[in-house]
Amino acid sequence: MTQSESAQSSSSAHGLTTGAVARRLGVAPTTLRSWDRRYGIGPAAREDGRHRRWTPEDLAVLHEMCRLTSSGIPPAEAARAALAGPASAEAAPPAAPAPLPRPAAGRPGSGNGLRLGAVRQECRGLGRAAVRLDAWAVDELLGSVIAQYGLVTAWEEVMAPTLHAVGRKWETSGDRYVEVEHLLSWHVSSALRRAAGPPSVGARSAAPPVLLACVPGEQHTLALEALAAGLAEAGLSTLMFGAAVPPEALDQAVRRTGPAAVVLWSQARSTASPALARHVAGTAWGVKGARARPAVVPAGPGWAGQPLAPGTVRPGGLREALTLLRGLCHAAAGTGTGRPGVRDQS
What we know:
By secondary structure, the protein is an alpha/beta fold. It has three domains: 85 residues, Multidrug-efflux Transporter Regulator, Chain: A, Domain 2; 76 residues, Methionine synthase domain (Methyltransferase, Methionine Synthase (B12-binding Domains), Chain A, domain 1); 142 residues, Cobalamin-binding domain (Rossmann fold). The protein is built from 15 helices and eight strands. The relative contact order is 0.07.
């Protein structure tokens, strides 16, 4: 046996160090020491009475602690359940089957240092899992909140607040949290696509599609993906073009597809373009004497305070946008035009 193999065998026999356990679980060593000091979740044995060495049994308790805190359960309560062992968990009723009360504004505690404020408890669990880079827990939580609360509530009250908190943390911490933001964004996008499911065959002929596009220069697509998922859930046809669509490409897409509505997403005021919105609203297609134009829906915080064409409606959130677009699609299906009841005589 080589010296390296001997060292590894010795390490395995005596347990893992705190640093090795922290790397394996994706948590900070200071978090493990804090759990040990506050809740008694520590190694059963210590070398020379000082150095922590974690056994497989200790790791099992830690894994349960991580799972419970990721689901939004406060650390102290999670620690009691983790230390009680699997028998206690099997005897207990399923965790959080009903909507959980929101904490009061200003209540301390969040997702591993993320400033979340007054949010659902699930936000804190999602934040903790994201900061730990625990992809499995993030995926499980996202699927759970969508199944429990529905897509709209899951987006507006869990996903979006957590994404905003991670974004603020990234902005104020240099590049320290960029990996957290990227991981969470990827899994939110994946969860939204799973929720949308495959395209509805019946939606292809029921009504003209809704065209979804970010304005030029806009790279943030997750809110638009949530809208696409909500429209798919309602059985409506969508065409998702994603981030930073050039004006020429948008113009061609509108003329080729004849959409019931065009949603233009702008996250920042610097990317919103009233001129582009007016151009799209004036785009017409069809035969002479019965030309049609789309309804334009400026969406996102970047449009706040921007001058919009008369009759243009800017939805305040996902729920309002879905209601508006359902009405536009149903009206377009009834009139056979892109914009309900609007025909050009040119």
